[in-house]
Write a structure and sequence with these properties.
- It is elongated, with a radius of gyration of 21 Å.
- It is built from three helices and 13 strands.
- The chain has two domains: 3-81, Outer Surface Protein A, domain 3 (Alpha-Beta Complex); 84-176, Outer Surface Protein A, domain 3.
- It has helices at 60-81, 142-155, 182-188, and strands spanning 3-10, 16-20, 23-28, 31-36, 43-46, 50-58, 84-91, 98-102, 105-109, 118-121, 127-131, 134-139, 169-174.
- The longest helix has 22 residues, at 60-81.
- It has a four-stranded antiparallel β-sheet, with helices on one face.
- Helices cover 23% and strands 41% of the residues.
- The chain is an alpha+beta fold.
Length: 189
């Protein structure tokens, strides 16, 4: 059963949005984020201070797909105001593991005593800070920050060993949220 769908997203103050060839570009001050928005059954139009998404007939599955892109657009607007931060922690029980940033990758040496280093890729425009066993990944783009954190966690995945005994690895301890932290909330007031 097809139904009509229409939704508007208010563009925050100071944000300029341009939609050309399925790419939505949003800019505020010196921060510019872009996202490929390919919502086939629907049309995306930018009016003065709002983004309108309309579809004359869409199935329930297509509406879910459209709402996913609406969430991505809202994450773009959040990213223009603040960075998304992921906290990770490295745990080395058996062998001391060392982490080193080399350009656009992180080299993990001596993981479980392995002689060949493991490598995790850092996506563009993502900042990684290593302080001892604590790792902070931050970016204005939520997908890039999350993928970089996942790359670190995946690089130290253990196979064919008991996870209860071999607890070595890098683990995400806190993920980026859509809400402001307490200190940021106090600064906004």
């Amino acid at each position: 059963m097809k139904q009509k769908f229409s939704e508007t997203i208010k563009i925050p103050e100071g944000v300029v949005c341009v939609f050309e060839s399925n790419i939505l570009k949003c800019k505020k001050d010196n921060i510019e984020l872009e996202r490929n928005i390919d919502i086939f059954p629907a049309e995306l139009k930018i009016d003065s201070n709002e983004i309108r998404i309309e579809c004359s007939s869409a199935s329930r599955k297509e509406i879910k797909y459209i709402r996913t892109f609406i969430a991505h657009i809202k994450n773009l607007f959040l990213g223009l105001n603040r960075k998304f931060i992921y906290h990770l922690e490295s745990a080395s029980v058996h062998f001391p593991m060392t982490l080193k940033i080399e350009g656009s990758k992180i080299t993990i040496n001596n993981f479980l005593g392995e002689k060949i280093p493991r490598i995790a890729r850092i996506l563009p425009n993502v900042d990684v800070d290593i302080k001892g066993n604590l790792i902070v990944v931050s970016s204005y783009n939520k997908e890039s920050a999350g993928q970089t954190a996942a790359n670190l966690e995946k690089a130290t995945k253990i196979k064919k060993r008991d996870r209860r005994i071999f607890q070595d690895g890098i683990y995400i301890t806190s993920k980026a949220s859509s809400k402001f932290s307490d200190s940021e909330e106090e600064n906004r007031k």
